[in-house]
Amino acid sequence: MIENKNIRTLAVLILALVLVVSACGKEKNMADDSDLLIVTSFYPLYVFTSNIADGIPGVKVVNMTEPQTGCLHDYQLVPGDLKTLSKADIFVYNGADMESFLDEVINQLPELKLVEASKDIPLLTDEDGEKNPHVWVSITGAISEVRNIMEGLSEADPANSEKYRKNGEAYIQKLTALKDKMHNELDSITNRDIVTFHEAFPYFAQEFDLNIVSVIEREPGTEPSAGELAKLIETIKKTGVKVLFAEPQYSPKAAESIANQTGAKVYYLDPVVTGPKDAEKDSYERIMEENLNVLKEALR
Ligand SMILES: [Zn+2]
């Protein structure tokens, strides 16, 4: 009786072990043999790359960070990220110093193929000469990044090159139509002075000829000091700016306190850095359409 029970326990254990081993084997095979795994660093690149690789058999796109992570300024890799990257064939990243952890990735995974979305795109710099990485926030910048990703994937995975190009060109057409629409609706506004949150909007402002009078927080999460707040309030009163653009990803506390003291109104512009886990293919266009509506209401 006791012996029987032991045998049964042993059989269950062996079965469990077989299941575990075969499950591991399957996962490995899927990543290594049948699938080409493309990993993107954060949300906007995930949306772009998903469009470019859409419907290509055996090609899978995974985002390394959680979709609510936002910009990767000062982001530190966690062990799970390296695990994700270790299964990847291609890593699509923004560049322009957005991913300060890139050297670590290159050191740990020298075989990983890299695609830099901001490659050769003229970058804006701040007064300290630091590169502004938020290229995708203008539609022209987004189109250039899509083109770079499309070319990079074609080179890294030549077998699917034609498919990447076909998808990429179709996506670029949609983005171009959106850019034209936004120009049509924004070119006639007369009030162009705005105050924004963190340094996400200079490319967008350049594209639509908006004048960023001041930036409320230099880096997300760093609240302005009392002195900085006082200076901002003075600037806003002097320039007569009527609208402050906060971002849905960050606390609006500073913007609201400035608004209270100046009579300016707070609106929300979205720099397309977060979204739902299974991002819809048209997430970028939808968020920009929403930004267009906000701008029209705020600046009319
Ligand atoms: Zn940012």
Question: Can you give a write-up of this model?
Answer:
The chain is an alpha/beta fold and 300 residues long. Helices cover 50% and strands 12% of the residues. The chain has helices spanning 2-34, 43-52, 79-86, 102-108, 139-156, 161-186, 202-207, 226-239, 253-262, 283-299; strands spanning 36-40, 59-63, 90-93, 113-116, 193-196, 211-215, 243-246, 265-268. The strands form two sheets. The chain has a four-stranded parallel beta sheet, sandwiched between helices. The chain has a four-stranded parallel beta sheet with strand order 6-5-7-8, with helices on both faces. The N and C termini lie far apart (86 Å). 34% of the residues are buried. Residues 14-33 have low confidence and may be disordered. The structure holds zinc ion. Zinc ion (ZN) binds at residues 71, 73, 134, 198, 200.
Précis, in short:
Helices cover 50% and strands 12% of the residues.
Sum up the structure in keywords.
300 residues; four-stranded parallel sheet; 10 helices; 8 strands; 2 domains; alpha/beta; Rossmann fold; binds zinc ion
